[in-house]
Write a structure and sequence with these properties.
The complex is a heterodimer of chains A (109) and B (116). Chain A is an all-beta fold. In chain A, the strands form two sheets. In chain A, strands 2, 4, 5, 9, 10 and 11 form a six-stranded mixed beta sheet that branches. Chain A has a five-stranded antiparallel beta sheet with strand order 1-3-8-7-6, with no helix packed on it. Chain A starts with a strand and ends with a strand. In chain B, the strands form two sheets. In chain B, strands 2, 4, 5, 6, 9, 10 and 11 form a seven-stranded mixed beta sheet that branches. Chain B has a four-stranded antiparallel beta sheet with strand order 1-3-8-7, with no helix packed on it. Chain B starts with a strand and ends with a strand. Classes of the chains: A mainly beta (109), B mainly beta (116). Chains A and B meet through strand 5, strand 9 and strand 10 of A and strand 5, strand 9 and strand 10 of B.
């Protein structure tokens, strides 16, 4: 059974304080590791797709990396508008994206 | 390009009633996924439709069902509603890439179902 675990569950940062979110996955035959951002009461917004270990992608203050067992979402010099829940999903041989519970990020000004 | 659209945005039903939720995928996408997101919980996979066929379903009772139409839009039906069915129901659409890579799924804004 595919499993995705995210940590920490919640993270509070000061504006400008960089940090990383972790996503550990167990899937057979990874066919995509996805990061989404979700604001309260809204649908998840797509951020990144990673396919193979060693791959990295960047978008503004966010950078996603992938190893064979984990993915990290690095947030550099965050701003209050980066506050949201960040979701990780892995898609394996079942073709169904399995989601973690998310990391709730709050960035204080 | 229009995104994934879901309707209605909010739905209030009484226990025992039926609810129908609708989803229109992004143009060119043939797959539709349905997820349930209950308060404080992660996204739980409900159903996957592709090219009009049900490809997989999650660990939900048979009263959760749906279908996909020839234009790839989809309906989720929930019969005999229970209080614990109250949740945000999310629809996502995607398209399959080549054999080794699969494209990401894009989500709609969800339907907030409240069962009273």
């Amino acid at each position: 059974e595919d499993q995705v675990t995210q940590s920490p569950e919640a993270l509070r940062l000061q504006e400008g304080e960089s940090s990383s979110l972790n996503c550990s996955y167990t899937v057979s035959g990874l066919r995509g590791l996805f990061w989404y951002r979700q604001d309260p009461g809204k649908g998840p917004e797509f951020l990144f797709t990673l396919y193979s270990a060693g791959e990295e992608k960047e978008k503004e203050r966010l950078k996603a990396t992938l190893t064979k067992k984990e993915s990290f979402l690095h947030i550099t010099a965050p701003k209050p508008e980066d506050s949201a829940t960040y979701l990780c999903a892995a898609r394996g041989g079942s073709y169904i994206p399995t989601f973690g519970r998310g990391t709730s990020l709050i960035v204080h000004p | 390009e229009a995104g994934v659209t879901q309707s209605p945005t909010h739905l209030i039903k009484t226990r025992g009633q039926q609810a129908t939720l609708r989803c229109s995928p992004i143009s060119g996408h043939t797959s539709v996924y349905w997820y349930q997101q209950a308060l404080g919980l992660g996204l739980q996979f409900l159903l996957w439709y592709d090219e009009g066929e049900e490809r997989n379903r999650g660990n939900f009772p048979p009263r959760f069902s749906g279908r996909q139409f020839p234009n790839y839009s989809s309906e989720l039906n929930v019969n005999a509603l229970e209080l614990e069915d109250s949740a945000l129901y999310l629809c996502a659409s995607g398209r399959e890439g080549n054999l080794l890579e699969y494209t990401e799924a894009f989500f709609g804004q969800g339907t907030r179902l409240t069962v009273v």
